[in-house]
Every structure is written in structure tokens, then in C-alpha cells.
Amino acid sequence: MVIVGKVRRDAPWSWLKDGLADLAAEPGISLGYGAVFTLVGAAITLGLVAAGLGGLAPVFLAGFALVAPAFAIGVYRISQVRDEGGTPRLFDFWSMPVGRVTQLALLSVLLLVFFLAWARLAQFLFAMFAYGSDLTLSSVLPFLFSMPGLGLIIVGTLIGGALALAAFTVSAIAFPMLVDQDVDAFTAIAASIKAVKNQPGVMLTWAWLIALITALGMAAFLIGLAFAFPLIAHASWRAYKDFAPRPASSADALAADRASSDAV
């Protein structure tokens, strides 16, 4: 069982503000992680184009965003070390206890499953809507402006959005919790799900802001991701600290839930 606190309705904006303050306090390391994340995304895009599969680039970039929290561990550590009064260093994540690293790896595998599911579904949708078309960028772009292409965009967006929401629900505060506490991945996932369940309006607003910032970063020829990635990661740490999840006995968790319901 896990206890999750209650946050203000406008909390996502505070998380962004505090996340920006974290980034500004350690711009070199934060933007360094952002640059690495951006370079990986660019390498995926260029590799697909070189292989004649440029039409798949948007699909893989969207899937890449699903696993972004697993890449943000180093950024979470920056905020954590700052909160503890220390001076962040580039490879602070190597100093985490082995048990936490193991649980982080387990949660990362779960996000990888979401990524693979998205890739397979996208492949199926393209085969269904664009039968006979190749996957080169020059062929896919004109197709997307056709009626079948519009159908592909609508259905793909709906399915991708559902997967993204599921991935967000299980990982929104789970990764920061595993970085900060000696808990197992299932407890961290439960805390994240509980935060979304208890305050769906707040968390849907946060999910929308993450999607918007990520989209703007990708629209800037991926360069914007070097800034967007650490900003979202720092803000996600602030979201976790605001909810202040903690493991508890069944009795304590039930009492906390009852108190939260009475408050509402």
C-alpha cells in the first residue's frame, strides 16, 4: 500500500516554474543530458531516412517519447542532490544503491513494452491504411494529405494517445520515487496510478503540458528537445515531491484515503 498526498489544482504550473529553476541552477549538466537525448532522437531519425524508412520517423520519435522518463534518471538526481544541499555532478546516478537501479531497470522494461506495442500497432495501421505504399519520406508525406492518410492520422493519434496516457499513468511520479526511496517498482507504479486516480484533472493538465512542450521541442528540428527534456524531467521531480508518496501499512493507507475523501 502507498499513501499519496494532495496537490493544488494549479500545481503543474508550479512544477514547471520550479523545474525551470532547477535547470537554471545547473544548466551545464541539465542541458548536457538534454543534448544526449536529442542526439539519440536525431540518430534514430537519420538512421531511418538512410535506410529508406523515413516515413517511420514520426512513429519512432513518438515512441521514443514514451520511454523518455527512463532516460531522465540523471536529471532527477540533479534535483535530488540540490534538495539535499549538495553539488550535483554529471554521473551522480552511478552512486545510487544497486537495489534502486534494479527497480528502475524493471520499470524501464515496462516502458519498453509500451514502445514496442506502439511500434507494432503503427506498423499494422500503416499496412491497413496505406497498403502497397513504401515507407520512404517522399512517399509518406503526400499520402498523409490524402483521405486514407487523414484516417491513419486520426486513428493513429487516438491509439497513440491511449498508449501515451497509460505509460504516463504508471510512470508520472514512479521514476523519481524509485530514485529517491528504497521501494520496489510495483509500489512506485501504484503511487503514480493513485496520483492520477485521485486528481485526474491535475494530472491530465500535466500530461497535456508534457505533450505540448515535447511537441514544440520536436517541431524545432529536435533542437528544442535539448531544453524540453531536462525541463520536463526537473518538473516531474517537483511533481513527485509535491505528491510526497510513501509506502504505508494497509491501515494507514485506508485512513489516508478516508481522510482525503472527507476533505473532498
Automatic annotation (TrEMBL):
Presence of keyword Transmembrane helix: yes
Record keywords: Membrane, Transmembrane, Transmembrane helix
Membrane-spanning parts: 31-53, 59-78, 98-118, 124-145, 152-175, 206-233
Record bears the keyword Transmembrane: yes
Name recorded for this polypeptide: DUF2189 domain-containing protein
